[in-house]
Design a protein that fits this description.
PIG-V/Gpi18
Amino acid sequence: MAQRQLAATATGTRSPLRAALTAVRVRYRLSPWWARVIAVFVLSRLVTTTLVLILASVQGPNPWTGASPDYFSFATMWDGRWYQIIAGWGYPSELPLDAEGHIGENAWAFMPVYPMLVKLLMTVSGLPWAPAAVLISVAAALGTALLFYRIMIRVLDAGSALFAVALFCFAPLSPLMQFAYAESLYLFLLALALLLLMERRYALLFPVIAVMAVTRPSGLAFALALGLHVLYRWFTRGRDPFPMRERVLAASVALFSAVMGVAWLLAAAAVTGNLMAYTDTEVAWRSAYIGHQELLPFTPWFQSAVWWIGPEHGPWLGPLVVILLIAGFAAMMFTPAVRRLGVDLRLWIASYALYLLAVFFPQSSTFRLLMPLFPLLGALAVPRSRVYRASLLVVGVVLQWGWLLIGWGVDGQDWTPP
């Protein structure tokens, strides 16, 4: 009734166009939270798909497609081909070796849940690989947006929570959520796990972690977050009771996550007979930058900094830049906006950042590896200024185009994989 009265008032006092816009605005505000999230998501996909189609129309021949590929061909380039190989042929029992006897790039670097889910959809629906892969990614991205709102509404007001979702949907790397990559599915599982953690529904975390840990590498980082969560609850049990049943469940799920964090490494070792099959496969991707070196925890960022800055500036500048980045990140974690996100989200953000610092070699896919830090968008969503919020969305779309040009589009012998 209120909706019709507002619309009627608008029609009588304004032009038909403005009245129609007012009616749409009223309907939007009176709609349930999930409808508003879906509206934001659909609008973001229209914008992002337009950018992708523009870039595809000028894409030249490349290792994956011919010139000016259609959307689905363009959306399944790069690592999408590895997932297609896994869906069609599985994992190799013999590891490829280069001329020097080092393990080369192979399918063991990519975990099985996403390609197997796509294969299941292909079997059930009869869809080819490309549309099935894109459909899974888009569906998972929508699910993530819905879960992200439920996470944000626990720490922010409704308007800011919805704007955080908008920032997520229009983020610079959001095109990846409609490509043949596992990121959308992983973010969905991560958002579900974080929501369950915030609600302290520890028992339900077991199946979620089991699937999440073999979708993208995450088990060890989430185990650290869970362990810190247990410690925090223990030390604050005076003002927030921590019953024995919850202690046992929380500690058990933390241990389970740690086990799942090495499960894929053990699976690769069991199939290939090489205990280092997974880690040496991962290292193969960074050999183009620094040659073949063993993975030593907490050294890759320093190695990368020296490589990107150049040894001609001396061995001190690269490590100094990394130390400054660490200090800046640590300081950010204690700003009022980030503290407002609550303890559990901050523990995940810190744990995942530490995991990246320990094992990841920064290069062109760095921004993709930062996507699991998406709860930080909640800190950006707090200010209410319309100019500020509109500016952030515009910047997000502009950076989408920049990332598509640099990371996704292929220009000859491209060395900037997404």
